[in-house]
User: Which sequence fits this backbone?
């Protein structure tokens, strides 16, 4: 396999973050954790956007991943981080494979609104479900990683470690996929579905596959967030959460797998500082940021680093 | 020569409008067939039915003896029937090379039998370079396809149909929108590629000079019917063709 610059950078950043973790203050580790979890979700959004689709309901899979992780911990009494993430990925993959059969038929605003509708259905189910804590959700506590017991700081570092490894692994796998023949179909479908079909490929099957991949990434992001935060609730599938993912995806751009990760970090940093220094108007700060990006960088922050194609 | 494509009793109605009326055509392998007729005569409807975009109201289409009438466009492509479009259908945000790479990738990544039989014996990058050279698109390799001149877009559109190594190629007005200077250059390149690949060609064309120069046989359409079928000289001299297609007064 030929290594590209992105793959090498992913390797360097993974090792760098893991090596630096003992030196990171708690606030920085927390900021990175949240950013990486969001970034993993937005990696999937990026794949959909490359295919010409925007999901307004990816909170569905983010929340489902978290609840699957929580169920493994609290109901099955298997508080292992790896198992929890695997459960999150599996649950979202199965649900997306089923819902994708319907969603792959729709485009544009219909796809966006249908995905939002499914996320709100989950919200409705969760707030009515007392066994799952209703609107309060429930706490979870991952106590082991691959069977090794974790206490105090070790648990925090393990949470950060598995987040770094799985996020960068997700970015690596997605980068590999996007460079493959199959992955190139994403942009081809966005540009011209008719031609894709007349070249012998199935547009619907490809969109279905991309939907499932994006859902699994959101599920992993949700499970990792649940492990790191230690609490889950139905707000994870409420529409503002899905809106945040769309916000980050537009802020980031779709040019490279680093875009969602960088975009999520920028988003979280702006939000944290805006909330700290301007607690009553932090939403306005984010709104102005989005306005500036859309006017001056319609291709997202990543477009600052991209070379233009010759005309 | 054996029959590669056989349309039997094709009819296509759009409400009260009859776009195809009892079309019966057998196309010989390796032949080049021109489809002529005024606008609305049924030429593109015929191509759309062969490629699966439209389903005939009645009748059937057979490719190498197999009934392909109910198949989807994708499945028909996989059997070896490919097409170009009157308005070039490109991936406009991609470069010329990337456009071709998508097609090569579809063949390379598909597990279907057609893809296995079409496996490349060179790397995809070399296959793209060979296509670019064959169609004279080398100078445009890294140019964004959405910004190309019309003649080049037409050529790329046809190259994309050829990239999956078809058995039959259907061209919908390959020289429309192309300047008089460029049209023979374009057709020469296309016909050279077609001969090299041993591809059977059906093409819709309004330019009688082009039709006469490149075809072995002409089908003349009028109001959904085939009014003349035969060698170019005979068809172009037909009284009905001169009246309804070419538009010459008596």
Assistant:
């Amino acid at each position: 396999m030929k290594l590209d610059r992105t793959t090498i950078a992913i390797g360097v950043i993974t090792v760098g973050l893991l090596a630096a973790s003992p030196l990171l203050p708690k606030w920085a580790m927390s900021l990175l954790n949240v950013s990486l979890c969001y970034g993993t979700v937005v990696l999937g959004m990026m794949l959909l956007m490359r295919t010409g689709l925007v999901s307004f309901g990816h909170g569905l899979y983010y929340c489902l991943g978290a609840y699957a992780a929580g169920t493994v911990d609290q109901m099955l009494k298997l508080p292992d981080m790896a198992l929890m993430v695997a459960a999150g990925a599996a649950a979202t993959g199965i649900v997306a494979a089923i819902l994708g059969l319907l969603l792959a038929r729709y485009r544009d605003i219909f796809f966006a609104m249908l995905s939002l509708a499914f996320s709100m259905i989950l919200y409705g189910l969760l707030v009515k479900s007392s066994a799952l804590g209703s609107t309060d959700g429930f706490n979870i506590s991952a106590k082991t990683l691959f069977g090794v017991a974790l206490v105090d700081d070790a648990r925090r570092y393990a949470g950060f470690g598995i987040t770094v490894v799985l996020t960068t692994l997700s970015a690596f796998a997605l980068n590999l996929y996007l460079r493959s023949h199959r992955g190139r179909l994403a942009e081809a479908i966005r540009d011209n579905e008719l031609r894709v079909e007349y070249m012998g490929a199935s547009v619907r099957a490809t969109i279905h596959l991309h939907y499932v991949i994006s859902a699994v990434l959101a599920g992993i992001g949700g499970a990792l967030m649940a492990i790191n935060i230690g609490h889950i609730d139905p707000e994870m599938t409420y529409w503002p959460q899905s809106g945040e993912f769309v916000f980050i995806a537009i802020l980031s751009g779709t040019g490279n797998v680093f875009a969602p990760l960088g975009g999520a970090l920028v988003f979280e940093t702006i939000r944290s500082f805006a909330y700290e220094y301007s607690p009553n108007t932090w939403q306005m700060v984010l709104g102005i940021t989005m306005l500036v990006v859309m006017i001056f960088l319609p291709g997202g922050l990543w477009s600052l680093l991209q070379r233009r194609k010759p005309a | 020569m054996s029959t590669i494509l056989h349309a039997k009793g094709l009819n296509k109605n759009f409400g009260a409008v009859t776009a195809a009326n009892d079309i019966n055509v057998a196309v010989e392998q390796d032949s080049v067939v021109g489809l002529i007729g005024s606008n609305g005569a049924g030429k593109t409807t015929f191509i759309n039915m062969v490629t699966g975009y439209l389903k005939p109201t009645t009748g059937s289409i057979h490719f190498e003896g197999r009934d392909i009438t109910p198949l989807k466009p994708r499945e028909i492509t996989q059997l070896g029937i490919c097409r170009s479009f009157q308005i070039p259908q490109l991936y406009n945000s991609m470069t010329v090379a990337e456009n071709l790479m998508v097609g090569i990738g579809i063949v390379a990544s598909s597990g279907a039998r057609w893809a296995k039989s079409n496996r490349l014996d060179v790397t995809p990058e070399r296959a793209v370079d060979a296509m670019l050279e064959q169609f004279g698109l080398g100078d445009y390799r890294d140019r964004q396809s959405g910004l190309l001149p019309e003649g080049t877009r037409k050529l790329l559109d046809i190259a994309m149909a050829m990239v999956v190594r078809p058995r039959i190629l259907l061209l919908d007005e390959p020289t429309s929108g192309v300047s008089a200077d460029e049209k023979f250059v374009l057709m020469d390149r296309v016909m050279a590629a077609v001969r090299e690949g041993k591809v059977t060609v059906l093409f819709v064309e309004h330019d009688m000079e082009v039709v006469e120069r490149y075809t072995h046989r002409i089908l003349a359409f009028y109001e959904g019917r085939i009014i003349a079928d035969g060698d170019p000289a005979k068809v172009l001299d037909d009284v009905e063709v001169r009246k309804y297609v070419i538009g010459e007064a008596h």
